[in-house]
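Predict the holo structure. Ligand: flavin-adenine dinucleotide.
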Amino acid sequence: MQSKNITKFCIVGTGFSGTAALVHLVKQLIASKLDCRNIEVVTIEQRQDNGPGHPYCNEELLPTHLCNNQTYMMALFDNDFYDWLCERRTELAKKVPDLIKVTHPDLEDVALWQPDQDAFYPRALFGLYLKARFTQYCLVAKENGMRLRHFNDCQVLDGQSTEEGFALQFRQSASLNATTQVFDKVLLATGHWNSIKQSQYDDRVLTSPYPYSRLNSWLTKQLQQGKETTKHICIKGMGPSGIDAILSLVESGQFSHNTQGDATAFIADEHTIKLKIHALSRCGFFPAVRDKRIEHQFKYLTEETFFDLEQKQGKRLTLDDILLLIDKELKDASEGAIGWHEVAHPPFSSALEKLKYDATLPQDNALIHNVLLRVRRMKFYRYLKPDEKQRYDSVLDTHFIRTAVPIPLLNAQKLIALFEAGILSSCQLGYEHKDAIKVTKTDMVVTFGQPQKQLHADGLILAAGQSFKLARHPDNLVKSLIARGELRPHTEQNYQTGGIQLLGYESYRAMRTDPNTQQVQVSPYLSSFGVLTRYWQNERNFAAAFVEAAQSVAHDWVDHIYQKTMPQHSRTDQDKVHA
Ligand SMILES: Cc1cc2nc3c(=O)[nH]c(=O)nc-3n(C[C@H](O)[C@H](O)[C@H](O)COP(=O)(O)OP(=O)(O)OC[C@H]3O[C@@H](n4cnc5c(N)ncnc54)[C@H](O)[C@@H]3O)c2cc1C
């Protein structure tokens, strides 16, 4: 039984979300001046390391796998990633020069490196930052009397509400025996999952481009079969993961750069010379290239929030109204040159033509980025009707993501170089054919274009990103929590948006079903943010949103200690501490 005096918090998953939660909990506890000696924080993570999680894991990535945001937009708080790079500049230049050179190929001596807050650094470097800050904040917590326990290489298998708290069952990977511990509060920060099982396919298909080591051994096998022949490798998905897959496949070759550091050509080696890489997606284009934000005086999308916009327009805005406002905003600012149609159907005959245009950083793209990003940040998705949400998810989200989440210029230049070296080509699969890619025992065929053409592939890498359908979540923990009613899939009328149900729009507290009364209620124990939660993809998949969520959960947990230890203490007093 748990001691009544000790408050026990558990963070499940220590990727960016779990790390942000730990850092902000420690910060807020210290600021609260509470006696921390009766607080225990337990972290449970199935990887060896705490901090990087899936997208930033040094061991699973290549230096060429870049963050899709500039340094100043990626931090646990303030401009801390950049500050950390500056603090550790000399040490990093010595220890991980490859993670610096890739972003600054023009730098002759890496010892002279000056971190650039506008640059895109490798995700592995961001992972090292997260790992370092995780360790540092654990030390700070200990110095302030908190008890900390970390379980790594350890998977949480199940959980259940009890009268004493939330009982979590977890197991070390090498052990057959599970342990159960009871906590006052639990954060589920379990992040990304892959619902495609490798066992569904034979070894011609790779179900994820990560980790790099797996892709590399897969590629080696592909190249060994029928040694002298050209290998046609298809990549399904042209977003950031698809680009990572392409860069992984050509890792043994070399990009050449001009004196400004731009990638100008690709020099193939004995392996890459045999490759024909075909990038496939429904729209057939890569995301736009990220440029500096422009100042734009909004004329139609004038308000900061969607709620205010509806108030101003004096009516409920439908999905079509939103598309119309985007169209008007774009047309007005571009004197009619671009509108929604050009966003959904980029006027280019190929991905290469569009990449070449994007790489010149045209004003049009900066405008589209600005407008689409503003609309997403207005959080309009939550106000759509279920049938509109369904339509948005199936056919429109792709256009928003492709334009609102652009790629670094360096990646675009590398893709152009690969096209020009004759190694890369692209295919537009279209939105109509669900089975454009057919994998049979004897063949792998991609059907595309009008009139229809066919492409026979030797290998296929699935890199189309995250499916949010909870019914296909592969982990026992999530399956079991949903089966027990401790979590609920978020459903609106009959449409399941993907992700779990939370209390209201701005809370991260999970909803549950009481097993006795079948009533839906707020879980007294569980919180969650990140990929597992509803609307994440549409509203909160950027670093600052994770930080905001971590601060909110930390605030709830500190509040819980106040309630437990000083029930007479009002929340307003506590809020003053965190202000
Ligand atoms: C390829 C890729 C690139 C991205 N690049 C960027 C970028 O450049 N910039 C940006 O802002 N965003 C980026 N994102 C978005 C990304 O979602 C967030 O930045 C963030 O890293 C998500 O962190 P997380 O902690 O929620 O999830 P994750 O990083 O997935 O971490 C979850 C952790 O939980 C652990 N875990 C899961 N289940 C269990 C269990 N049952 N028991 C114990 N441990 C468990 C996992 O091992 C993992 O370490 C990227 C996403 C992807 C997929």
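The mean pLDDT is 93. The radius of gyration is 25 Å.
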